[in-house]
């Protein structure tokens, strides 16, 4: 990988949490409970699989008893969501990754433990959704595995709204990711961890692989370095 841990460290800086966005409505505990119970009912007692394509691969918030590779046809990874919190700021907005329509996305399927399934769904909703406006980004999709198709829960699929910027050139995305940082870390760090953990699982996303090369080049340029200096 061209994007190294040393380069990623250059993208990190202390940032204060600006707090929830004023125009977005946090889910109440009652709404979280209703949402979780609806998803539990929709699982219909079958094994509950979650399709992970980004941070859930390297920072899951559930108890998985099994994992396998899977392919979501008709979807692809896309840094298409503008964010001013978490890994971005109001002064330097970042881009968050979601699943957008078209193509194919290879990722990891995790099967949740049957014990306290409702509690685990609650944890996923609190982590991945958070607001009423984002509830529509949760859906069930078919994912192909070596044994056939499974029905899996996926978060941040087909996002809509004023924050969505589709079909951005990779060069534009790279410029944003190399500069954006929030109180939870930088966008470059997110990209690095995602690509690194996909590689560990035997998955290489062509666009992300090219993107990490572009972000590495941006960081070298921002900090007045070159590849020879970085390799020492």
From TrEMBL:
Annotated Gene Ontology cellular component terms: cytoplasm
Keywords: Lyase
Broad EC category: lyase
KW NAD (keyword) present: no
GO biological process, one term: glutathione catabolic process
InterPro entries, A to Z: ChaC, GGCT-like, GGCT-like_sf
EC number: 4.3.2.7
MF terms in GO: glutathione specific gamma-glutamylcyclotransferase activity
Pfam family, one: ChaC
Keyword Chaperone: no
UniProt-listed CDD domains: GGCT_like
PANTHER family: CATION TRANSPORT PROTEIN CHAC-RELATED, GLUTATHIONE-SPECIFIC GAMMA-GLUTAMYLCYCLOTRANSFERASE 2
The protein's name in its UniProt record: glutathione-specific gamma-glutamylcyclotransferase
UniProt source species: Rhizobium lentis
